[in-house]
Structure formats: C-alpha cells, structure tokens
Design goal:
The protein is mainly alpha-helical. About 60% of the residues lie in helices and about 0% in strands.
C-alpha cells in the first residue's frame, strides 16, 4: 500500500519530492496521511473508489465466464464490477475514455471462490509444457 500511495502522491503533486517525503515520513511515523485541500481535489479528479461485496465479486466472476468464457480471479472481478458500477452511476463517463482492468492472477489460485461462483473445477491452461508438469 505505502509504495502505491507514495507513487500516487508523487504524480499528483507534480513530482514534488520534498512534499512526498514529508507525507511519507509522517505516514510511517503515525500511520496517517493528511493532505491539503488542493492535493485532495487533485486526487479526487483522478481516482474513484467503490466497495464491492463478496456476492458481487462472485457474480462478476460468473458473468465473465458465462458471457465471454473468461475466468476472472476474485481481485480482477472486483475491478471489473467496480468499473461497471462506477460507469453505471455516471462517475465514469464515455468521454473519460476506455476502462482497462488488468487481470492480476490466474483463477486457479482461488479455487474455493471459483467453485462458489461457477460450480465447477477451475479451468487450467493446457500446453505440452504445462501438461508435462503433472507427470513429473
């Protein structure tokens, strides 16, 4: 978390290393970050956040599988559902450009969630090299 926070503060502050260092030192000391109103508004112009329930996560995984035969991991399903919800609520609009959600892991790492969402075994990729791993 801290490195993403530091990176975001650096870019939003226009590369102000001194300000970022001060904020991060305070964060490490206190666990809190206090930003001025100008920086707060700059952050709000770039970032939007949303909470996604476990049920919505599983629903997004199921929808991706049924509609596109794409196996989303839970983390990626949260991103997809959140982006769709932000678009539906008008927070993200078409003029903002395309929404890109980066898949963060293979669903095989989350077999329990996959089975809850889909009701079947996780689809494993199959290539000669991968298949050979099961016969060692």
């Amino acid at each position: 978390f801290a490195y993403n926070l530091e990176r975001m503060l650096y870019f939003i502050s226009g590369g102000d290393c001194t300000a970022v260092r001060h904020l991060m030192e305070n964060f490490e000391r206190t666990g809190d970050v206090q930003v001025d109103d100008s920086l707060r508004w700059s952050i709000k112009e770039v970032f939007a956040s949303i909470a996604v329930s476990d049920a919505s996560t599983l629903n997004a995984m199921g929808a991706a599988w049924r509609q596109q035969h794409y196996a989303l991991c839970p983390h990626s399903a949260i991103a997809v559902h959140g982006a769709q919800q932000l678009r539906n609520e008008g927070i993200l609009r078409e003029h903002h450009g395309p929404i890109i959600c980066v898949a963060t892991a293979h669903v095989a790492k989350f077999q329990e969630a996959w089975e809850k969402a889909i009701g079947q075994d996780v689809p494993l990729p199959s290539t000669p090299r991968i298949d050979a791993l099961f016969h060692k």
